[in-house]
Amino acid sequence: MSEESTKLRDVRRIFISFRMSDRESIDALTSYFKWPHVPLDDGNLEVEGPFVLYRRKEQQTGTLSGDRMNSFTSPSSRDGGVDFVFIDGFDQLVVLAPSDPPRFGERLINLMLSCEEREYLVGDLAEEYVELRVKFGNQFANAWYRRQVYSSLLPLISKSLYRKLSAWVVKWFRRLN
Amino acid sequence: MNAPKNTLGSFEEYVMFATLRLGEQAYGARIRQTVEEAIKRSVSIGAIYATLDRLERKGFISSWQGEATPERGGRAKRYFRVEGAGIQALNETRTVRQRLSEGVDLTLDPAGGMA
To answer: What is the pLDDT of residue A9?
Structure first.
């Protein structure tokens, strides 16, 4: 794979479910990418993962078909912080590793939110983090994530304090009555 | 004097308009991006959620849980929709702005001060 062809030029993220029969490939894919996968009755596995299609200089991206995806090489290449898997005979397909934002930021956010709020907010951050990682690489995405976490602290702390304070005021008034 | 009860702050207004613009695709990350692109300034997801939370308490918007996707690490989305009371609040805010700006000349003189 030449360096030219591994440069991300026109990125489009898609999600595909596909069937695989090669045990070794399945193990490598699912353990490396930690993708959700469903075993099928016929011994195959249905895997769902985030794929990134990108365009080479003068070549359009093609359509993916199940047959062409049955064999692939192990994840090895890296370009701009994005992990790739090259499917044999289909070198335009790039597979994006799962989002792995800075853990400290995620923990900090978790401290200030209820379980329900945590799910939405951290999910939103993870989604944008993946997009930025594809477009600009790890370093940019990590810096963006940290900035988001730090600038979210004040509004989230205020929100949490406001809630606690209003609950306390209501309680206090009830006691008076 | 009958003062409008439901006027919105600037940021609340931005968030409401972004939610309206996005329609069925209005959830935290997209709302944040839409507001950020419009005001050309960095906006934190925390500020968006704090505002959405406040607007929901006032009854201007409603929310529901959406699907979880792998790109979000299996976490669900929370979608938002502007309710009738929210539209009314946007209209009232616009009316107040118009009333206040009526007859005010905002042309700048070449030196940058008031004309």
So the answer is: 33
Do A93 and A144 form a contact (C-beta atoms < 8 A)? Answer: no
- Angle, helices A115-136 vs A103-112, to 10°: value is 150
pLDDT tens figures, B28-40: 999 999 999 999 9
Task: Work out whether strand A78-79 and strand A82-83 pair parallel, antiparallel, or are unpaired.
Answer: antiparallel
Q: Which residues of A touch B72 (CB under 8 A)?
A: 99, 123-124, 126-127
Work out the number of other CB atoms within 10 angstroms of the CB of residue A45. Answer: 21
Which distant-in-sequence residues (6+ apart) come within 8 Å of A134 by Cβ? A8, A11, A13, A52, A82, A96
A125/B45 touch (CB, cutoff 8 Å), yes or no: yes
What phi and psi, each to the nearest 5 degrees, are found at residue B60? -80, -30
Q: Which residues of A touch B77 (CB under 8 A)?
A: 120, 123-124
Task: Say how far apart CA B53 and CA B61 lie, in whole Å.
Answer: 9
Question: Which DSSP letter does residue A75 get?
Answer: S
Predicted structure pTM score: 0.65
ipTM of the complex: 0.84
pLDDT tens-place string over residues A89-128: 333 344 444 446 777 777 788 777 777 778 889 889 988 8
